[in-house]
């Protein structure tokens, strides 16, 4: 993706004054001077925190200038200036005629020109030269360069937006250490930072990490002060998730202790300890030293609280229900459910050998534990079948909020006998917006030579390859490589690169993300 910086300037027909001439002139009557330049949106309104831009997004807007001074007799003001973006000269002697045959307005932002830039760019206006007339009848084209009614500022100004503090973070399962990344834009760089980690600690670093007491939700505040002394704050809630447990439940035969609960753990730190307790009390037990899976057996019908603790002391507790089933004689060679992230659906498959009688398979689903199943759909059986009956059902009606989804299959034959399958579950991610990213790059903006790209989405399959392409904003290729790492260090690549926008393109399976980095 190529992003071009375009600045649209109105060129005067009668006034192009070389900068060196402006410097050499004696502007002794500079009773009008430039107070500031600011960036606004395409309608001429200030930007707000609700503007939905990400670093590197192209923004079409306007530039405004504010004049101050003591003069009450100034008309037909004309100005030239140079524009620098991220330290690079992009416009030489831009021109504007303001207040043509009108009195110059002081202390009020005034439109200068339209232009397009990239969100996060540092836009500076330098070598600012203005001249005006004391005669209200003189148009800009007749303003003389020979009098002293002028002003020059070579160092210039940062064309500022309002200061918008923002940040992102990386939190992994049961890991109390969280990495934060500063995303502040606007104001007048450089910035000072004051982080508050829910009253548990503070930091003044740009991209700090912090160790929390454990998993849970915390309110994080970032207060940013820019070079002009403007102070703004933002507070967001973050969540450190616990590790994931997956269960499969087999019902118990009526009036017997034949139920089972299979517990699979992922995302934590083995070995695990598993404890279970029935409600009402009567059945309990525990086992230690489990690497990734354990099956609790000989269970009667009832509710069971399952608590899993990993080697770091991280704990997960969930409640499950083992129910009675009058018939469990139906054999299942396969019953599994998988989440398909490309179609955002759950694909359910089951295999039944040697079907002896016509039947219907009713797929049931629960979004709130395993005691609130509802019919989802039906699949007709093959009837009399001496080989294998292979069946599939696709659940496309997943909740946007995601979460643990439970499935089971109820079989009803023509003799009105009912068979129940075991219960299986799938972890469904929250539905992401189009602009949400599974990759985090930090720090962004980049001021030094250390840059890290890190995966923050759902767990990746070990060995999955990711293609990374790095280029400049004008499309010049810098580096392309393939990796299976979830944390990618880019220090050697960015060390010798100039200031400006870097475009990072990540191709991960069928998905592609583009992240733009501002190098200051």
UniProtKB/TrEMBL annotation:
SMART domains: PKD. Keywords: Signal. Residues 187-240 form the PKD domain. It comes from the Bacteria. This is PKD domain-containing protein. Pfam families: PKD_4. Residues 1-21 form the signal peptide. It comes from Aquiflexum balticum DSM 16537. InterPro entries: Ig-like_fold, PKD/Chitinase_dom, PKD_dom, PKD_dom_sf. PROSITE patterns: PKD (PS50093), PROKAR_LIPOPROTEIN (PS51257).
